Structure formats: structure tokens, C-alpha cells
């Protein structure tokens, strides 16, 4: 996909053994994944069709593959060709559409990382359909339509990747992560090559041993802007997608990303590992940074600031230069930052664990208009359930679902 069809043909035809110095590759040389298979089939014959940069075809006789073939005087068997091709495809593919649907908190179309012509449809964290654009068209993940190849960029552009890096940094070719180029030289690039069995890491700025694809394969590639996708490695973080790239965001302390709702929550989702679960944390008794960061500049005197870890704790600051002193609310109460006092939890949409510091079996789930409730165990949240249609609202004071809207602040205040 992207420019890799052309690069793969060069590599497999023996040209890849030459020093890899190549000028700017244009969009007209892009191939879909299906076309790559056609090209690999043609490679097993004595002559192949190679796409020129202007998109036209010319006849070329394939020389023997690599130094080993030159020394032996024979062309490697077909199995060797197929093995190299499969290795290239596996290296470039990254996350599959199934992987993306599983972690995406949304419904809609996504592009296929292994085929520029193909797309899929995600619903309820599953891939429920996959299809391809008609011949001559490529799928544009940016607007979710099939467009002419000349009007579509299948891969993320190098300029987009370099926007988040420094000019002196190097960046891997999105179409072939063995190759890399300096961001400052994009207008007239000279490509470096990691060599067989290695790939370039944008993050570490060095070549690494290829273990499981490109180091910078990201879950947001071929995803529409604004998508929230769970972190494959942790339930406590997630990605916000833009232009095919992901910005890593963390849930606050003690909260976990729910890939079904797209929100952070105070209980561990059932599909997460127990390793993700945090022990109950008590904030430090003093904090040297919270006063300087959050003390309001337009006020003076003692100000109480949330501890950013619990619903019931706060720090006392006398100025922005003070060291915060931690205190907790009495049992059964939560801290209200706007009133500077401890109050009833029913009037507070705290985004941390609402089961803490109180003796409740069930509490209202924030950001649900009191249509859901959270089950508590040992003063921490365990799971959330929805009230039945006949009794659609959860009343936290009564501890049950009712047919009347309770009008507590927790029902309508964003948390």
C-alpha cells in the first residue's frame, strides 16, 4: 500500500541491493495491497511489469536476487520469493481492521491498513463488514469515501509525521519502515536504510530489530478524525485520532478507559487485565506543586484545592508559593471545589471513585443523567448498570431506580 509496491519490486528485483538513495516519491506511484499481490505473482516469471513514477508500465527483465544469487549463478526458488513477500506484508500491515474495531469506541467506516482499496465497518467493537472500492478508486479514511487515486493519500504523509518532530529528527517511510529520512530534507530527500531484519523507530531515532512490525505502527492509522481508541497496552490510557495519528491521553488516577462508551470510568472493565487495576491510593500528606499550579491568581488567603486523586480529599494552600497540606472530608461526604467545603455526594459529579469514603451499595453513575448506577464493594466501584425502562432514573438517596427524575446535581452536572 502507499509507495511500498514500487519499493518492494525494486528490492525483490535486485535493485534493492544497491545503495538506497532515492529522490522524492510522488503519489502517482502508489499501489493498493491487491495490486501488490499481482506484482508478486508477476515476479515469479522471467520478466515483470514495473510501475514508473509517472504511472505507466515498461517491460523489465528481473536480474537474480541479491548477492547470494549473484555468487551462485542461479535464481532462488519461488518459495523464497513468496517468503520475502509475506515478510514485507506482515511488516507493513500493523493493526488489522479487527484490532481497530475492538478498541474503537465508535461506529462507522475505517480503512484497511493492508489494502488501500478496502474498507470496513465497525459496530459494537466488532468488524461487521468489509468491502473494496471499485477498480481505479482508493478508500480515503479522511472523509470515508472512495476517490480517484490521484485525489487520495492512502498513507500518512511524511510532512504530517514530521510536524510532531524536530527538523533534525529522522522519520521512517510510512510505506517501508526499514527506510528513513531527515525531516529537514523532505523537499530533496536522501534515504537511509536499516537493512534486513531491522526497522527504524521514530521515537528512539535508531534502527531496531524487527520483532512485530514497525515500531510506529499506530492504532489510529486509517481512522477518521476525532476517534477515541483504547491503548492496546493499557486500560488506563487511550488515543485521540487526527490525520491518521494518535495523541496518547491518560485517564485520571484510579480511572480506566471504556472502549465501548469512549469514557474513563472508576471501575476496571471486564476485558482488562488485573495488572491494570490500581490499589487504593492515599494522596501524599504534602504536595509541593499543587499550590503553584492551581492556586487562583485573582484570590488571596486560604484556598482549598481538589487532590486530583479522590472525591473526598483536598489540599490547603495560602498562596501559590505554599506547600499544599492534605485533608480528607468526614465519612460520607465529598469535597465541593466550587463551595470550598465538604458536602453531600448526590450534589457532586466527581470524576474519581464515587464509592469511596461512604457506606453505599449503589451510587449514581456520572454523565448518564442518573439513568445508570454504579455498584460498590469495599468502598470502590465495581461495575455500572442501567435502570429499567419502567423506572429509568436512579435516586441516590433512596438507593434504587424510580420513575421520577431525582433532580440531584449529580444527575445533570458534568463530571
TrEMBL record:
This is GD12764. The gene is Dsim\GD12764. It comes from Drosophila simulans. Keywords: Chitin-binding, Disulfide bond, Glycoprotein, Repeat, Signal. SMART domains: ChtBD2. It comes from the Eukaryota. GO terms for molecular function: chitin binding. GO terms for cellular component: extracellular region. InterPro entries: Chitin-bd_dom (IPR002557), Chitin-bd_dom_sf (IPR036508), Chitin_bind-dev_reg (IPR051940). PROSITE patterns: CHIT_BIND_II. The keyword Glycoprotein applies. Residues 98-156, 159-216, 217-274, 288-352 form the Chitin-binding type-2 domain. Pfam families: CBM_14.
Amino acid at each position: 500500500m502507499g509507495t511500498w509496491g514500487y519499493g518492494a519490486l525494486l528490492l525483490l528485483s535486485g535493485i534493492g541491493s544497491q545503495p538506497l538513495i532515492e529522490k522524492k516519491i510522488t503519489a502517482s506511484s502508489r499501489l493498493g495491497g491487491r495490486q501488490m499481490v499481482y506484482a508478486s505473482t508477476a515476479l515469479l516469471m522471467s520478466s515483470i511489469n514495473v510501475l514508473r513514477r509517472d504511472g505507466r508500465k515498461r517491460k523489465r527483465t528481473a536480474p537474480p536476487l541479491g548477492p547470494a544469487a549473484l555468487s551462485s549463478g542461479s535464481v532462488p526458488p519461488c518459495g523464497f520469493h513468496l517468503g520475502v513477500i509475506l515478510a514485507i506484508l506482515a511488516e507493513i500491515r500493523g493493526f488489522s481492521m479487527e484490532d481497530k474495531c475492538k478498541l474503537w469506541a465508535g461506529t462507522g467506516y475505517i480503512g484497511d491498513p493492508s489494502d488501500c482499496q478496502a474498507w470496513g465497518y465497525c459496530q459494537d467493537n466488532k468488524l461487521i463488514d468489509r468491502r473494496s472500492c471499485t477498480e481505479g478508486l482508493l478508500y480515503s479514511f479522511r472523509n470515508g469515501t472512495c476517490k480517484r487515486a490521484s485525489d487520495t493519500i492512502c498513507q500518512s504523509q511524511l510532512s504530517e509525521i514530521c510536524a510532531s518532530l524536530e527538523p533534525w529528527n529522522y522519520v521512517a517511510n510510512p510505506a517501508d519502515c526499514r527506510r528513513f529520512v531527515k525531516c529537514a530534507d523532505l523537499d530533496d530527500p536522501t534515504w537511509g536504510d536499516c537493512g534486513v531484519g531491522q526497522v527504524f523507530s521514530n521515537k528512539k531515532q535508531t534502527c531496531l530489530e524487527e520483532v512485530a512490525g514497525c515500531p510506529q505502527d499506530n492504532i489510529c492509522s486509517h481512522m477518521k478524525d476525532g476517534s477515541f481508541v483504547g491503548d492496546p497496552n493499557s486500560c488506563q490510557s487511550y488515543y485521540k485520532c487526527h490525520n491518521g495519528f494518535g495523541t496518547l491521553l491518560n485517564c485520571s488516577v484510579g480511572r480506566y478507559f471504556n472502549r465501548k462508551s469512549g469514557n474513563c470510568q472508576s471501575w476496571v472493565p471486564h476485558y482488562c487485565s488485573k495488572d491494570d487495576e490500581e490499589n487504593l491510593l492515599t494522596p501524599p500528606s504534602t504536595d509541593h506543586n499543587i499550590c503553584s499550579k492551581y492556586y487562583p491568581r485573582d484570590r488571596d488567603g486560604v484556598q482549598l484545592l481538589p487532590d486530583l486523586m479522590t472525591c473526598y480529599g483536598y489540599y490547603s494552600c495560602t498562596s501559590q508559593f505554599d506547600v499544599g497540606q492534605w485533608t480528607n472530608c468526614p465519612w460520607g461526604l465529598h469535597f465541593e471545589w466550587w463551595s470550598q467545603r465538604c458536602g453531600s455526594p448526590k450534589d457532586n459529579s466527581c470524576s474519581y471513585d464515587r464509592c469511596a469514603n461512604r457506606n453505599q451499595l449503589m451510587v449514581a453513575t456520572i454523565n448518564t443523567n442518573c439513568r445508570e448506577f454504579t455498584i460498590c464493594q469495599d468502598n470502590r466501584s465495581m461495575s455500572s448498570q442501567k435502570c429499567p425502562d419502567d423506572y429509568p432514573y436512579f435516586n441516590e438517596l433512596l438507593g434504587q431506580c424510580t420513575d421520577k427524575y431525582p433532580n440531584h446535581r449529580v444527575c445533570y452536572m458534568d463530571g
